[in-house]
Each structure stands twice: as C-alpha cells, then as structure tokens.
Amino acid sequence: MNKKKQTIKKPNRYLLLGALSALLIVSAFFAYPFLRHAMGEKEMVTQSISQSKTLGLDSKSPREYYDMFQCPCCGQPVDTGCCGMAKQRKEHLDGLLLEGVQDTEVAVQMVKKFGFGTLMDPAQEKEIKEYLVSKAPDNPPKIAVESPRYDFGTISQSQGIVSTSFKITNTGESDLIIDSLDTSCMCTTAKLVYKGEESPEFGMSMHGTNPKNFELRIPPGDSTELKVFYDPMAHGKQKKPEMRIVREVTITSNDPVDFQKGVRIELTQVR
Asked: Model-level pTM?
C-alpha cells in the first residue's frame, strides 16, 4: 500500500518577522504612557532645560530651581514629595520649565500661584516686587488693608464663633478686582461685604469648596469690608487647657505687585 508522504509547509519567515515587528510597535504604543509615568517628568524637565542651555537661554539646573521653592509645611525643597502641597508645587514648577519659562519669570509665576511664602529665600521677595513694578501697567490698581492683624485675646470654646472685620481700600488709579479669598485652616472662613451685599463664604481652598468665577470690582478710592470668622469647635473638643491660635486669610486681586495680600487673626483659646 502506497503511503502518501505528508509535508508540512513551513511558515514564511518574512511573514513572521512582519507580524513580530507589528506586535512590537503596537506594544510600544500602549506601553509608552506607563513608561513615561514610571520615568517621571524629571527627565523631561532636565532635557528641556538642557536644550535651553544649549541655546544660551538659561543657566540653572532643575536642582537649582527645586531649591528655590519650599513646601509650606516642612520648609524643604518642593521635590521632596513630603506631602500633597509639595507635589502640587513641583508639578506647577515642572510645567513652567517645560514651557520654557526661565529665571525671574519662573519665580514670579510660582509666587502668583502659591504666594511669596513659597520662596525658599525671603530676600528674593524684594527682587520680585521690583521686577513686578517695572512690568506694571500705567495707573494700576493698588490694594491697601487697614490694620491687617487682629488679636481676639482669650476666648473659650463655649463662646462659639467669633468674628472681626478688616477694611480693604483701592488706593490705585484703576478698578481693583478681588477674585478669591483663601484661609489657612478649615476653622476660619471669610467673606466680603460691599455696598451692603455679602459675597459667598470662602474657606480653605485645598478642600475644593470655595466659590468659582468670583469677582468683586472696587473703583479707585472705594473700600470693601472683609469679615473673618473663627470657629473654636471646628476641630472638636479641646484637650489642652490653653492653645495659642494664629490664622491667616489671603486676598487675591489684580494688583500687579501685591496680588496676594494677607490678614491675620490671633487668639488664646481655653476650654
């Protein structure tokens, strides 16, 4: 009986190579976002600054930029990643560097976003303000706060919420626009009163509950009242017999130099 010899066709090696190449390309496409996340943005920032140096645009390294700005809770450089605030500041700084923003303008943008307290060297505040004055438009608005510090003295938790007011005046030559308030703690809230009308209430912005798209326009020479409220029960029943409390409210406006102005309340709280 004759048996037919069975033959198995070998797959075309070129087809195999083509399929393998296509698979590698597709895999690389989908893996890129994960690889980028794993590598982090630091390499991209470093490359961006290196290119700027090559073009003669800048002379600072990423390390030097990170050391210019501090985390508000620990005073360490923003790239330490010690908390959400440090990460937020580093991400904003990385974004500025990737956009090609350099030198003094980096500091200006960081200060506009996070306030002068983000500067590692307080002496740099004077330099930045001088720069802002040189860039300010003619006849700018100017914010002035009368007696920006208030001490309640000693209060007890049983008193409940206490409040005080600060007078804000536009001493400039064009309309002053206040667009937000921010408090340093959830126990403190604030609102503006202008011509008998109260604004929405503002608290600590990082909680994400503050009003959006707010704007109060104050003509030259006119004033508004900033009302600040402190709730001694906000953190629960007090355990220590006595506590010294200091809280701040930040006012953000279109003043080209003092775009963030602060007021402070102080008190001694007893049970």
From this structure: 0.69
Q: Reply yes or no on whether the pLDDT at 1 is more than 80.
A: no
- How many Å apart are CA 258 and CA 112, to the nearest integer? 10
Fold of 143-270: Immunoglobulin-like (2.60.40)
CA distance 143 to 54: 42
Contact residues for 131 (Cβ-Cβ < 8 A; gap 6+): 104, 108
* The three-state (H, E, C) secondary structure of the chain, written as one string: CCCCCCCCCCCCHHHHHHHHHHHHHHHHHHHHHHHHHHHCCHHHHHHHHHHHHHCCCCCCCHHHHHCCEECCCCCCEHHHCCCHHHHHHHHHHHHHHHCCCCHHHHHHHHHHHHCHHHECCCCHHHHHHHHHHHHCCCCCCCEEEECCEEEEEEEEHHHCCEEEEEEEEECCCCCEEEEEEEECCCCEEEEEEECCEECCCECCHHHCCCCCCCCEEECCCCEEEEEEEECCCCCCCCCCCEEEEEEEEEEEECCCCCCEEEEEEEEEEEC
48-72 confidence digits (pLDDT tens) = 555 554 444 556 888 899 999 998 8
Q: What type of residue sits at position 70?
A: Q
